[in-house]
Structure formats: C-alpha cells, structure tokens
Amino acid sequence: MSEIIKTDAVVISKMDYSNTSKIAVLFTHEFGKISVLVKGARSAQAKTGRTVDVLNYIQVILNKKETRELQYVNQVDLLDGYSKIKDDLVKLKYTVTGLELINTLIPEAEQHSRLFRGLVKILSQINNTTSHPAIPMLRFILFFLKEIGFELQFDNCFYCGKEFSDAESVSFNFEKGTICNDCGKDHLVSFTFTKELFNFFLCLRQKESNIQVNEREIEIAYNFIEKYLKFHVPEFKGIKSIHLY
Ligand SMILES: [Zn+2]
User: Fold this and answer.
1) 224 CA distance to ligand 1 centroid (A)?
2) Which end of the chain is more exposed for a tag (fewer CB within 10 A), N or C?
3) What secondary structure letter does DSSP report for 142?
4) 152 CA distance to ligand 1 centroid (A)?
C-alpha cells in the first residue's frame, strides 16, 4: 500500500538515473533518510529537478510505499537554497562534509528528528556566518556523534576520574576516551590533544561563538574525528569531502 506524505527535507546527494531521471537521497524531518526518484529531472525545464538539488532545504510531497526502494516525488517547494554557502568554496566544503557523514553513517528510514532540526539550524548558521565555517560544522559533528551513539566526553580521565581544566594536554584512547597524562603513561594512547586543541574542543562544547583557532588545528580536529569514526565503524572509509581541496 502506498501513502501520500508531506515532509521537510535536506537533499544530501543526487545522481543521474536513466536518460531522463535522477535519484536523490533526502534527509527528512519525520522519516529519516529516503531515496527518491525524480522523473524527468534531467530536462532543462524541469523545476522539480532543479529544486531537488544537493544542499537545498525543501518541502516535499512523496508517494511512499514501504516495499519500494525508491519513493516518487509528487511535488516540491524550496524553503532555502543557502546561496551564500554555494558561492563560497570553504563554506561548501565543510557543509558537504556534514551531509556526507549523514549519508554514510545513518541507515535509511531510521528517524532522526533532532538531528534534522540541528542540521537545518547549522546550515543557516554557516550560510550567514562571517567566521570560519569549520567551527559551526564541527559543533554539529559533535552533536551528530552523540545522536548516533558515539558521544565524545571531555570532562574527566577515563581511569582516575580527574577533571580536566582548559589548559592542559590530554591523551585519548579511541575505545576508552580521554585520559590524563599520569594514566597515559600506563595505558594505550591512540591520540594526544595539545593544550590548544583540547581547549578548542572545550570551547565548541560551550557554544562560544568567538573561537580563536588556526587552520592547522582545524585540520587536526577533523582528522581526529575521522580516525575516531573509523575505529568505531569498521565499514567507514573516511570523510572524502574534507580532503577535496
Ligand atoms: Zn587519570
């Protein structure tokens, strides 16, 4: 049995299908990730095809049938096209990184309404920000990790419980979490946060808007997230978008 549903969605990927159509993956508010067929989307006049484009925030009416792998788009309206992200390569790179993580790590049809609302909020922030877009996206990724069950905690040492201040270097084990320097001498350490990097993660968590951080630290922070995810998700092959340029 099929049903007509209406939902808000962000388009997270899109590819050609046959000579005339496209397949898109939508991250929807109510139904999680859904793959849709957009018939006739490749013709130049097709408004639907232009609206169902990567990164667009849309409202969509679907003909949904559980037994079908691809759902059919009946009608679509654009809610936000985030033009300031599309016009800025750096903003685009970090935004696509977030979409890629959702695309690769969230199974189809698993509902993630909180994550959806978080994504829409962060897209709007990145669109309008004048500071480095890596910062709001990293904040979103920390929230994303929490939502999918891999929360990072920066409060205290896994072994002795020592609370961390903002001015110290801290060790990390991908399985156990943060480890103080004393306990780090006796246990396996997979990664070491410099004082600056650890402080950066603490600032992200405290929702500070004016964070001073350099490109090198941003790069190390994203590499750390990538390694952490590879450790926990064996089939995860890394974040392609972050290495694009
Ligand atoms: Zn300790």
Assistant:
1) 21
2) N
3) H
4) 17
> Fold for domain 84-156+162-243?
de novo design (two linked rop proteins) (1.20.1440)
**The pair of three-digit structure tokens given for residue 60, joined into one six-digit string:** 């969509």
Report the phi/psi class of residue 128: left, alpha or beta, with left for phi > 0 and alpha for psi in -120 to 50.
alpha
2-81 is classed in which CATH architecture?
A: Beta Barrel (2.40)
Q: Which pLDDT score, from 0 to 100, does residue 44 have?
A: 65
What is the whole-number distance in angstroms between the Cα of residue 203 and the centre of ligand 1? 22
> In angstroms, what is the span from residue 140 Cα to ligand 1's centroid?
28
What does pTM read for this prediction? 0.92
Buried b (16+ CB within 10 A) or exposed e, 115-148: bbebbbebbebbbebeebbbbbbbbbbbbbbeeb
Give pLDDT < 70 ranges for the chain: 44-45, 209, 245
Q: How far apart (Å, rounded) are the C-alpha atoms in residues 23 and 53?
A: 10
Q: What distance in Å separates the CA atoms of residue 80 and residue 82, rounded to the nearest whole number?
A: 6
Distance 171 CA to ligand 1 centre (A): 10
* Ligand 1 centroid – CA 148 distance (Å): 27
Report how far ligand 1's centroid is from the alpha carbon of 194 (Å). Answer: 16
Q: CB–CB of 170/193 below 8 Å?
A: yes
Residue type, 243: H
